[in-house]
Amino acid sequence: MEEKLLNKKIELLVIGGSAGSFDVLLQVIPKIKSDINFPIIIILHRKSNTPTSIAKIFSSKTNLPVIECEEKEILQPGTIYFSPPDYHLLVENDHSVSLDSSEKVNYSRPSIDVTFKNLADLYHENLAAILLSGANSDGAKGLFYIKRNNGITIVQDPAVAEIKFMPQQAINLFEVDHIFNIEEIINYINNINTTLN
Amino acid sequence: MKADLIKEDELHILLIDVAQKYGYDFTEYSMASLKRRVNRLCLIDKHKSFAELRYRILNDEEYLSRFVEEITVNVTEMFRDPSFYKTIRETIIPELATHPHIKIWLAGCSTGEEVYSLSIVLHETGLLHKTLLYATDINPSVLEVAKQGIYAIGDMKLYSENYINSGGIKDFSTYYSAIYDHIKLIDELKLNTVFATHNLVADRSFNEFQLIICRNVLIYFNKDLQEKVLTLFDDSLENSAFLALGSKETIRFSDLESKYTQIGREKIWRKNC
């Protein structure tokens, strides 16, 4: 079992965050190596009428392409995708993105739980997920669902999170694989699919 | 959080059943969303198995209506994306105004909030009297709500803010009267509006328009169906007419791309002459 877990390839990394996560991403994204061989999806709660494009903000801080998802976008390795505000983000079997403007879940659209569940069903053990700071319980159940589908589950250490509620909810719910500070999160991402991980 | 009751292969079986028996064809909808909607319905209605859901749908026509209503998304609001309505008001309306008669199709109008938003803009720009507005949806029950023009009073604060942000200049409350916890929009707004069922998957073009608005409908379709529906819109638009889509939808990658020019930053395109 241990052997199998060590050798599994991560095909997608998903990061969920709410209040206090933007600053974490500002620290993490510039440090991600430009040769990663998997796509990253980021589900971030934010105001729906934000005038500046989040993709623009992060594009200037990394060599990786940063995209705010449009309909039927095909996920590419080495690319960072942000969920657009006011849509749930789902991935189809052909790895294209479907957006969904249906009811809010956990008072949130995008909802982290919605995307986590969809990705767990699609990627199973080839999925890694990180849940960051937040004042909302969105994401905890979805992260547990990822764990039950043999994905890797990581939360930001509540002790260092700006708002510890969201990662703490996951820790209270089940035994997460890793509780990481920001440095450890960066190290983890940069070692995905390398011999070290 | 539980694993889905209805698996994807079962969903396909069900969709083919529904298409054959009732003529509602959802087989080309985007599967990730549809799977989520169907499983959500099973949770709400406490179905225990795929067989149970399938039996109910195929033997209870009333339940079929509920199925259609629940798996199609009917989340909408008045003046959704205010900047979109600002562009309609400031850029599209002056072009439409040059026509002696205006025909507009709002496809997938759901419970009507965007129909009345458009009527208000047409009213304030003096074009409502010479406009014929077709508001269509696949789902008869949401059209009934749309026809009534009665909405929850609690939403009016947001709608009023959206209205002001879209360039509205009046007191929004002049457009409705309050009845207990609901509001009724003034009848004048739906004077030249035809509410009718239309299924974008199966039905043909029924007129030629100067503007078609279809927002957050194509996101629920797969690529092939998106292309078919965009072609249907293309066939239903006069030269120099406008096509308006949802904020994350695009005609990029479709056959229409070379024939249309985007208007500014909004998801509005003009058909080339």
From TrEMBL, chain B:
* Gene Ontology BP terms: methylation
Enumerate the Gene3D superfamilies for this protein: Vaccinia Virus protein VP39
Keyword field: Methyltransferase, Transferase
Task: Report the SMART domains cross-referenced here.
Answer: MeTrc
GO MF, one example:
S-adenosylmethionine-dependent methyltransferase activity
CheR-type methyltransferase domain sequence ranges: 1-251
- Residues in a coiled coil are none
Superkingdom as given in the UniProt entry? Bacteria
User: Which InterPro entries does its entry note?
Assistant: Bact_Chemotaxis_MeTrfase (IPR050903), CheR_C (IPR022642), CheR_MeTrfase (IPR000780), CheR_N (IPR022641), SAM-dependent_MTases_sf (IPR029063)
Q: What is this protein called?
A: Protein-glutamate O-methyltransferase CheR
Q: What is the lineage of its organism?
A: Bacteria, Pseudomonadati, Bacteroidota, Sphingobacteriia, Sphingobacteriales
